Amino acid sequence: MTEQTATTQIKRTVTGKVVSDKMDKSITVAIERKVKHPMYGKYVSRTTKLMAHDENNEAKAGDTVTLSECRPRSKRKAWELVTVVEQARVR
Questions:
Q1: Domains of the chain, CATH where assigned
Q2: Burial class (CB in 10 A: 0-12, 13-18, 19+), 27
């Protein structure tokens, strides 16, 4: 009678560096991008900090990670960890 059409949304993904992993199942990731200054034309670094869900606590501070959009898990968390691209070097 009535057919249900499944709408699949494409989730955004971003790559950034883990700034903090001190919370349980949560990480803070800094996403850096270059923006051209409107008057001077110089490219300036802008940073956005996102909180992400890390189910297995696998990401550590300094790691480069890939995040994907998900449903809101809390007031500030609407991203989840997909993969750890590169682990931080330990000196």
A1: 13-86 (2.40.50.140)
A2: buried
